[in-house]
Amino acid sequence: MSQKTFQSQFPILEACMNKGSTVELAIAVHQAGGYPSLCSWTYNGRSKLMQKDLDRFVEATGSNCIHLSFELHEYTDAEVHSIVKSHMIPTIEIIYGDKNTFRPTSTEQELTADVIQLLEPIKALGTKVFKRIYDNVDQTMMDQHLIDGFCIKGSESAGFTGHVSVREVFLQQKAMTPNAMLIPYGGVGTAEQVKEYIDLDAETVAVGTV
Predict the structure, then answer these.
(1) What is the pLDDT, as a whole number, of residue 2?
(2) With 0-12 CB in 10 A as exposed, 13-18 as middle and 19+ as buried, what is 193?
């Protein structure tokens, strides 16, 4: 794996955790050689606080290599665009769909339109976009929604979970979308598990609660 997208010493992403992904942890993860994250859920809709912590991270580390997680409709499109553009953030994660949010979802057509409206300007910056999933997504929807890859959660993941293991969803998604960048997102706590997923061509491996 080249780690061209997630540029860190180790192929380990700090999984985006509600209230757990703080700027202090992000700085520590960066210093330890991992790829840090901030999660919009931590800020209870207060985008200015997220921007403030992002500014603090970049000032402390001299790096913009951080993964940002946003729930669709939690902030306005303009707020998300401003946060991502402020430091040309390389990667973001977008959370939407029936299993990903407490907020009511739109019709499929409306949802697709909302996702495209949010992501088109972000993709124009060169930012890579990942969608958090529990069930497999086909190539058609991936292309329609401008997705570069997937953060894959499963039965052993914290927070919202699925009924199928991360590994099973990972392998099925790899078969369905062979060019997608895939990140296993839960149940990983040892170097052996990280290596196993990297050997399966994971882009990086997310570690959270542990």
Answers:
(1) 43
(2) middle
